[in-house]
Design a protein that fits this description.
The protein contains three helices and five strands, in the order H-E-E-E-H-E-H-E. By secondary structure, the protein is an alpha+beta fold. Strands 1-2-3 form a three-stranded antiparallel sheet. It has a two-stranded antiparallel ribbon with strand order 4-5. Strand 1 and strand 2 form a beta hairpin. The longest helix is centred in the first third of the chain and has 39 residues. The protein is elongated, with a radius of gyration of 20 Å.
Length: 133
């Protein structure tokens, strides 16, 4: 890097401090999410509990997860839009809660591609609830 004058150095220090703060806040956010999902997993005796974030382009990712050691982690994996279609996002945004005891039961009404997707992760049942974070 070339020589910085005194004013430039102050700007770099301020910028570095802002970036550092954002990283810390990000880490704290993940820690804040970890406690409730761990508690929900314990109460429900679930193999996995996760918080899924829908991104503006319709894709999504798990941003926090509590999973038993026998199961593959989904944390930070990118998921295609088909995993949580736009028409369902609206229903859940209005407070819809849905429990599916058996993802393979035809009465559950899941698409074949979604069943194939959840099979990759050994998911047998699902409970959905939308919460704005």
């Amino acid at each position: 890097m070339s020589k910085m004058c005194c004013g430039d150095k102050g700007k770099w220090v301020k910028l570095f401090a802002e970036v550092t703060l954002k990283i810390r806040q990000s880490l704290q956010f993940k820690e804040i999410l970890r406690a409730p999902i761990t508690e929900v997993q314990r109460i429900l005796r679930a193999d996995r509990v996760l918080i899924y974030q829908v991104l503006p382009d319709g894709t999504g990712r798990a941003i926090s997860e509590s999973v038993l050691p026998d199961y593959p982690a989904l944390l930070d994996l990118a998921f295609p839009e088909e995993v949580f279609p736009t028409e369902y996002q609206g229903l859940y945004a209005k407070g819809r809660v849905r429990a599916i005891a058996d993802v393979h039961d035809p009465k559950a009404g899941l698409s074949e591609c979604l069943i194939e997707f959840v099979n990759q992760f050994n998911i047998k049942a699902k409970l959905y609830q939308f919460t704005k974070v």
